[in-house]
Design brief:
3-stranded antiparallel beta sheet; pyridoxal phosphate binding; EC 2.6.1.-; 393 residues; 12 strands; Aspartate Aminotransferase, domain 1; alpha/beta; binds pyridoxal-5'-phosphate; 13% strand; single chain
């Protein structure tokens, strides 16, 4: 049967090919190290699991309001107050089945055919596809490595047209790990507010920030910027709850209402049990969040220099999230590969290390390595890559 045009235009994830190949090699008995993980390698904290058990025992197993329970909305409202000093009401929050679904629903309700969404590169793989699925057109702006992969106000000004509906800011970033500072956010935020452009602020890695760096939400910087911002966040990365599928959006009540209407005809509601557990995630002890953050930071500090010492690799030090994003253009050339996609395939083929090529993030000279894996495993992967590159020196 002929499929709908909107899905025919969907590009498959570039990570899929390499993940499939890694799985195939593993099945053949090879000792493959996968550095593609986009999720914390820790278990969900025990008190959250216990809350889910309690939810099931207490019969909290039925439909909930489409936009999420009042209990979870209140926990999210409280979190915004505590962490960012931001005030939201229940009608300015929607709980969705993961942050990814919150973004999907948002683009569905704000975009008309031909509306443009500015997406800084390198970008998280799902942004362009979600914008296209909603009939919008992604417009890319290159976040240069010299500027820590961040876009500048001038670049944004040169990109905005009268069709620009929204701009995506993802800080800390997947895949680069970089953060926008307060001044940068203020400049971008004020410009968008003045132009009536919606800022989609994806803050899913908010809790994973290292060294002296601090996460700032663009919505904190003025009441007017807040009015033009939809914050996207969730418990997946902060509380190691990727499989529970709880994320949310916060912002303008009319947008939230439209998203809630759409959810009422698609998912009905996020899982009742996961919502109940997410209240415990926000209202219970937060030590585990800090422990996981500290573990990621320790790994980063241990492996970053080692990665940079590999011939042909050059990597800025990430400030957050759990990815390293080295430029490997020279390494690919040294290895005689036509591009970094081929180089990534070679690393898998020859050394059984699976990395994600940057082409999927709109940055074809780079690869993404996730350190959401044990230090021992990551170091073994680096040794293998080092061994592979040593033959080309
Ligand atoms: N935004 C970014 C930048 C991400 O990296 C991810 C997950 O990889 C998400 C959103 C989606 O998170 P969730 O698991 O809550 O859907």
């Amino acid at each position: 049967m002929e499929l709908a045009k909107r899905v025919a235009a969907l590009t498959p994830s570039t990570t899929l090919a390499i993940t499939a190949k890694a799985a195939e090699l593993k099945a053949e008995g090879h000792n493959v190290i996968g550095l593609g993980a986009g999720e914390p390698d820790f278990n969900t904290p025990t008190h959250i699991i216990e809350a889910a058990e309690e939810a099931m025992k207490e019969g909290f197993t039925k439909y909930t309001p489409s936009g999420g329970t009042n209990g979870l909305k209140d926990a999210i409202i409280n979190k915004f107050k505590l962490d960012q000093g931001l005030n939201y009401s229940r009608n300015e929050i929607i709980v969705c089945s993961g942050a990814k679904h919150a973004l999907y629903t948002l683009f569905q309700v704000i975009l008309n055919e031909g509306d443009e969404v500015v997406i800084p590169t390198p970008y998280w793989v799902s942004y362009p596809e979600q914008v296209k699925l909603a009939g919008g057109s992604p417009v890319y702006v290159e976040g240069l490595e010299e500027n820590q992969f961040k876009i500048t106000l001038q670049q944004l000004q040169e990109t905005v047209t009268d069709k620009t509906k929204a701009v995506i800011i993802n800080s800390p970033s997947n895949p680069t790990g970089m953060l926008y500072n307060e001044q940068e956010l203020k400049e971008l935020g004020e410009y968008c507010a003045e132009k009536g452009i919606l800022i989609v602020s994806d803050e899913i890695y908010e809790k994973l920030v290292y060294g002296e760096n601090q996460h700032v939400s663009v919505a904190q910087l003025s009441e007017n910027i807040k009015k033009h911002t939809i914050i996207i966040n969730g418990v997946s990365k902060s509380h190691s709850m990727t499989g529970w599928r709880i994320g949310y959006a916060a912002g303008d009540k009319d947008i939230i209402k439209a998203m809630t209407n759409l959810a009422s005809h698609s998912t009905s509601n996020p899982t009742s049990i996961a919502q109940y557990a997410s209240v415990a995630a926000y209202e219970g002890p937060q030590e585990a969040v800090e422990e996981m953050r500290a573990a990621f930071e320790q790994r980063l500090n241990t492996v970053h220099e080692k990665l940079n010492s590999i011939p042909g690799f050059s990597c800025l030090k990430p400030q957050g999230a759990f990815y390293l994003f080295p430029n490997v253009k020279r390494a690919a050339e040294m290895a005689g590969c036509k591009d970094v996609d081929e180089f990534s395939a070679q690393l898998l083929e020859k050394e059984k290390v699976a990395v994600v090529p940057g082409s999927g993030f709109g940055a074809p000279d780079y690869i993404r390595l996730s350190y959401a894996t044990s230090l021992e495993t990551f170091e073994e992967a680096l040794s293998r890559i080092q061994r592979y590159m040593s033959q080309f020196q």
